Amino acid sequence: MQLDEKDFRILDVLRNEARDSISEISKKTGIPITTVYNRLQRMEQDGIIKGYSAVLDYEKLGLGVLAYILINISYSKHTGQKIDQESIAKKIRSLENVSEVSIITGESDMIVKVRTKSISQLNNFILKKLRNIEGIDKVVTMIALSSF
User: Looking at residue 83, what is its pLDDT?
Assistant: First the structure.
């Protein structure tokens, strides 16, 4: 599906406020309501819009520590079998406090986004959960000071 300028204007409004009604999107973009409705339906059906989400205040939820963890993988088990990077990513994603796992290029193999209530909980997560997954060789943790 080819997106045009109208589609991108609609998506831009949704990026800033996913709760806007079709009527509000129409007003903000200057595109007729029926056109907005039809384009949203098409983009949902085509999988361009996968869902709508809320922006949370993690401080108020008690998850004020945001960390990004770079991971290097050791690709062979002690038995000589090869370790699958995707299966490791899925194991990590299933852990509590993990909000995102991406397989990346560069010096590291993965980056993991984690939210915890404290540095102590982050430390526990890294030492007792993350480093116990077979195949994880090295981790580098970066704590976010602010996010925008």
Answer: 84
Name the residue range of residue 104's domain.
65-143
Report the distance separating Cα 61 and Cα 65, nearest Å: 11
Return the CATH number at 25: 1.10.10
Q: How many domains does the chain have?
A: 2
DSSP helix/strand/coil, 97: coil
Strand residue runs (E) in 24-147: 65-73, 98-103, 110-116, 136-143
**What's the whole-model pTM score?**
0.79
Distance CA 121, CA 87 (A): 25
**Residue 121 domain flag:** yes
Q: Does residue 74 sit in the same domain as residue 139?
A: yes
Give the max Cα distance, the chain: 63
Within 8 A by CB and 6+ apart from 12, the residues are none
